[in-house]
């Protein structure tokens, strides 16, 4: 939903009712993950996507119907020999999409959500996607949860307390997905079968974007920063040389820092500003920068990826110096160097694609092999839990 909020919020502020479709679960090959959203305005304008094209037409009709009728609905889209092309779902997976009307009446907490997103404050939205027509756990009822407060209600204090506690745990890890309860608030996850009155609650977590720390203000860094920004990272470029580390040279970076790289990384870690989603790209090729920086990085267990550019000769010399500095073999094994997948890259832009591809493969457990040489689902349904090594956030 984060992707569409900037475009739909003016509709909301203008007093418009619009239809919102959100992916709440996926199975097998799924082109979009839970939290992906598509909105339809009263004029028929569409923003966002729930399937990358597979079922957009059918979902458009559902969203427009919900906008007009005022009634939310949960729809499932799968594939079979009979209906594969009827709605366009040909990828072989199954997705569940919750479709609802959104307005200041149905979602009065939305301005607070938008404000939190703008401030980088973590917030989660818990919505009942299966439940009764009225009473506790009514279909479409909503609870917005922050680490220290909550707004809205799912219909009863007991249900709000139970869901709020679980949601804060999910928010801490940035995870998005479904939870199951009875109307008294008892969690039914793990139960062998559904019970009468079971509620299904979709929790969409919104946390700060993951960070990409690019060390070395060179032309390759500009390309890596641009691609990192495109992938949704908050990008920092850091170099000790002020003449090279300028904002004008790195327009796609969120910030450019003039510091000794190892000092900056150590300070960010000490202040709690890196986590298990943070990736580090070391591009300096200079031992006086690389060795202290990599010594620091390889001893930070939080980092999701540590890559270093350089020739194989440069890397052999780098390894020798790191060993001399006391870095252990198990720590060295965490480093991807030379960084990137074997794409035959030549230019800075091609090298950036190679490095980004390796980061994506590490994040999701991909093989890095051509899809023509692999079997099984192309899109995995990891969804519920915003991100495996890096929890997923909603949309």
Automatic annotation (TrEMBL):
InterPro entries: MoCofactor_Util/Proc, XdhC_CoxI, XdhC_Rossmann_dom
Signal peptide: none
Gene3D superfamilies: NAD(P)-binding Rossmann-like Domain
Pfam families assigned: XdhC_C, XdhC_CoxI
Region (Disordered): 366-395
Domain XdhC Rossmann positions: 212-359
Residues of the XdhC- CoxI domain: 11-78, 118-182
Protein's recorded name: XdhC/CoxI family protein
């Amino acid at each position: 939903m984060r992707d569409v909020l900037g475009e739909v919020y003016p509709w909301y502020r203008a007093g418009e009712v619009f239809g919102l479709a959100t992916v709440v679960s996926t199975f097998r090959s799924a082109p979009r993950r839970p939290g992906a959203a598509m909105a339809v305005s009263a004029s028929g304008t569409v923003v966002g996507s729930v399937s990358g094209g597979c079922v957009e037409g059918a979902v458009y009709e559902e969203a427009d119907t919900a906008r007009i009728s005022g009634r939310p609905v949960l729809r499932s889209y799968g594939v079979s020999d009979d209906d594969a092309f009827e709605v366009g779902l040909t990828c072989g997976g199954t997705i569940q999409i919750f479709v609802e009307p959104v307005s200041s009446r149905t979602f009065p907490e939305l301005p607070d959500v938008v404000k939190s997103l703008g401030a980088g404050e973590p917030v989660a939205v818990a919505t009942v996607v299966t439940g009764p027509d009225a009473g506790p756990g009514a279909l479409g009822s909503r609870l917005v949860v922050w680490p220290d407060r909550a707004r809205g209600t799912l219909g009863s204090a007991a249900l709000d307390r139970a869901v709020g506690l679980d949601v804060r745990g999910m928010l801490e890890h940035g995870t998005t997905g479904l939870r199951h309860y009875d109307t008294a608030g008892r969690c039914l996850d793990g139960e062998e079968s559904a019970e009468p009155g079971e509620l299904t609650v979709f929790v969409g977590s919104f946390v700060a974007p993951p960070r990409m720390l690019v060390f070395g203000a060179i032309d390759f860094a500009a390309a890596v920063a641009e691609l990192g920004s495109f992938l949704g990272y908050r990008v920092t470029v850091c170099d000790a040389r002020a003449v090279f580390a300028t904002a004008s040279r790195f327009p796609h970076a969120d910030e450019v820092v003039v510091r000794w790289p190892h000092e900056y990384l150590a300070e960010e870690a000490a202040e709690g500003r890196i986590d298990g989603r943070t990736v580090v790209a070391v591009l300096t090729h200079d031992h006086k920068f690389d060795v202290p920086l990599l010594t620091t990085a390889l001893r930070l267990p939080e980092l999701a990826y540590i890559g270093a550019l350089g020739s194989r000769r440069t890397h052999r010399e780098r390894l020798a110096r790191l060993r001399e500095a006391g870095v252990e073999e198990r720590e060295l094994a965490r480093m991807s160097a030379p960084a990137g997948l074997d794409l035959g890259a030549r230019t800075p832009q091609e090298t950036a694609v190679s490095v980004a591809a390796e980061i994506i493969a590490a994040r999701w457990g991909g093989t890095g092999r051509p899809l023509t040489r692999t079997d099984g689902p192309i899109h995995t349904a990891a969804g519920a839990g915003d991100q495996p090594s890096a929890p997923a956030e909603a949309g």
